[in-house]
Amino acid sequence: MMPAKLTPPSHAIPCPACAGASRFLLSATDRNRKTTAENFNYYSCANCGLIFIESCPKDMGPYYRGGYDPIPNSLEALREIAKREHFRSDPILRYQKGGRFLELGPWRGVLCSLMRDAGFEVTAIERDEACVSFLRNTIGVDAIQSVDPLETMRTMETGFDAIAAWHSMEHLPAPWLVIQEAARLLNPGGILLLAMPNPDSFEFRVLKSRWMHLDAPRHLYLFPVQPLIKLCGEQGLKLLEITTADEFSDIQSQQNWVSLARSVSNLRLIRAPLWRLFYLLGRRWQKKEGRGSAYCAVFARPAARLSQ
Ligand SMILES: [Zn+2]
Fold first, then answer.
1. Which end of the chain is more exposed for a tag (fewer CB within 10 A), N or C?
2. Residue 55: how many other CB atoms lie within 10 Å
3. Which residues is 101 bridged to in the sheet?
């Protein structure tokens, strides 16, 4: 099937988060999964900095065909994976040693498993039925199946010590409201971990619509770092740390260059040296703090002031 012709729109549309004026940024197709030949327009808000898709498809289900990493067949197999992925839980464990943890969109539950093994009482909100079953029956955490985490969060009682959205916030229809709800659900002193693709990255600047982590149309929004910090600040959340130079950012970067090399040639003999060449060439800029492929940010809801 031939992709439809790219026709940048002549009109700008208001930012869904702040209603500010926006400018057309780019058009992208589903390069990663090729679920459709449609073009998706992305805009950038001149007021708050948010990058957003023009219209969020009503039913995202068909665009998720193929899923993500395979679900392991046992808890032991998941723990083997989790052993190598402590970079997911370490930023939380630097500030919280136990209590109640909520994860939004955990997929197969690597972080849920790490947090459970660290002694937390874990709740997860996940859209995929097979994942929910694995989270409940194999990992043994409280998993709620929902395609609308915001609505689910609105029904929940407060009292979480940590909440995380590990590369899931960009998939949600109104992430700014999810952040607001997370701030409500956190205990004073509670931690919010947000890991997302970095639109300030060297890769996005160079590759634009060919950047793997634009992932149209599954990624509905991209938050540059400063607007994210401002948005969280408006909800009373204070930034504790942020980096684009963690291990996961490097993994994301490698995946991006592999994907680009694959689009040049499917022949392994060409693809394999090519992605390494891309990766090495980009490394100097990519490694600069703020320019990495993804960021991991930790915010805190300040502890309540003691009454005088
Ligand atoms: Zn805006």
1. C
2. 12
3. 122, 162
The alpha carbon of 137 and the centre of ligand 1 are apart by a number of angstroms equal to 41
The rounded Å distance from CA 22 to ligand 1 centre is: 7
Is pLDDT at 286 greater than 90 in this prediction?
A: no
Please provide the DSSP assignment of 82-95 as one string. Answer: HHT-TTTTHHHHTT
Question: What's the pLDDT at 242?
Answer: 98
The pair phi, psi for residue 186, each rounded to 5°, is -75, 145
Task: Please give the distance, rounded to the nearest whole angstrom, from the Cα atom of residue 200 to the centre of ligand 1.
Answer: 16
3-state SS string over 34-53?
CCCCCCEEEEEECCCCCEEE
Mode of pairing for the β-strands spanning 160-166 and 238-243? unpaired
Report the pLDDT value the prediction gives residue 2, as an integer from 0 to 100: 45
108's tokens: 């197969």
Each residue of 53-98: pLDDT tens digit? 998 778 888 898 877 888 999 999 999 999 999 999 999 999 999 9
What residues have CB less than 8 Å from 197, skipping those under 6 apart? Answer: 167, 170, 204, 213, 214, 215, 219, 222, 252, 293, 294
User: What would the CATH number be for the domain defined by 72-245+294-300?
Assistant: 3.40.50.150
Task: Indicate the domain borders of the chain.
Answer: 72-245+294-300
Question: Considering the entire predicted model, what is its pTM?
Answer: 0.92
Contact 236, 273 (CB under 8 A): no
**Using alpha carbons only, what angle is made at residue 132 by residues 149 and 143, rounded to the nearest 5 degrees?**
60
270: which 2 tokens? 């060409």
| Torsional sign, CA 286, 244, 250, 210 | negative
In whole angstroms, what is the distance from residue 25 CA to residue 304 CA? Answer: 42
CA 288/CA 141 separation, integer angstroms: 38
pLDDT at 225 over 50: yes
> Residue 35 C-alpha to ligand 1 middle, in angstroms?
29
